[in-house]
Amino acid sequence: MTRSYTVGIVGATGIAGQQFVIALQGHPWFSIERLAASERSAGRPFGQALLDPKTGARRWWCQEEPAAKVLSIPVENGDAFDPEGLDVVFSATESDVAQVQEPRFAKTTAVVSTASAFRYEADVPLLVPNVNMDHAELIHRQRKNRGWKGFVVPIPNCTVTGLVITLKPLADAFGLRSAIVTAMNGLSGAGRSPGVMGLDILDNIIPFIPKEEEKVQTECRKILPQHPAEISATCTRVNVMEGHTESVFAALGRRASVDEVKHAFRSVRNEARELGLPTAPAEWIKVHDNPFRPQPRLDRDNGGGMTTTVGRVREDNVLPNGMKYLLVSHNTRMGAAAGAVLVAEYLAVKGYLHS
Amino acid sequence: MTRSYTVGIVGATGIAGQQFVIALQGHPWFSIERLAASERSAGRPFGQALLDPKTGARRWWCQEEPAAKVLSIPVENGDAFDPEGLDVVFSATESDVAQVQEPRFAKTTAVVSTASAFRYEADVPLLVPNVNMDHAELIHRQRKNRGWKGFVVPIPNCTVTGLVITLKPLADAFGLRSAIVTAMNGLSGAGRSPGVMGLDILDNIIPFIPKEEEKVQTECRKILPQHPAEISATCTRVNVMEGHTESVFAALGRRASVDEVKHAFRSVRNEARELGLPTAPAEWIKVHDNPFRPQPRLDRDNGGGMTTTVGRVREDNVLPNGMKYLLVSHNTRMGAAAGAVLVAEYLAVKGYLHS
Amino acid sequence: MTRSYTVGIVGATGIAGQQFVIALQGHPWFSIERLAASERSAGRPFGQALLDPKTGARRWWCQEEPAAKVLSIPVENGDAFDPEGLDVVFSATESDVAQVQEPRFAKTTAVVSTASAFRYEADVPLLVPNVNMDHAELIHRQRKNRGWKGFVVPIPNCTVTGLVITLKPLADAFGLRSAIVTAMNGLSGAGRSPGVMGLDILDNIIPFIPKEEEKVQTECRKILPQHPAEISATCTRVNVMEGHTESVFAALGRRASVDEVKHAFRSVRNEARELGLPTAPAEWIKVHDNPFRPQPRLDRDNGGGMTTTVGRVREDNVLPNGMKYLLVSHNTRMGAAAGAVLVAEYLAVKGYLHS
Amino acid sequence: MTRSYTVGIVGATGIAGQQFVIALQGHPWFSIERLAASERSAGRPFGQALLDPKTGARRWWCQEEPAAKVLSIPVENGDAFDPEGLDVVFSATESDVAQVQEPRFAKTTAVVSTASAFRYEADVPLLVPNVNMDHAELIHRQRKNRGWKGFVVPIPNCTVTGLVITLKPLADAFGLRSAIVTAMNGLSGAGRSPGVMGLDILDNIIPFIPKEEEKVQTECRKILPQHPAEISATCTRVNVMEGHTESVFAALGRRASVDEVKHAFRSVRNEARELGLPTAPAEWIKVHDNPFRPQPRLDRDNGGGMTTTVGRVREDNVLPNGMKYLLVSHNTRMGAAAGAVLVAEYLAVKGYLHS
Question: Does domain C5-155+337-349 match CATH 3.30.1160.10?
Answer without folding.
Answer: no
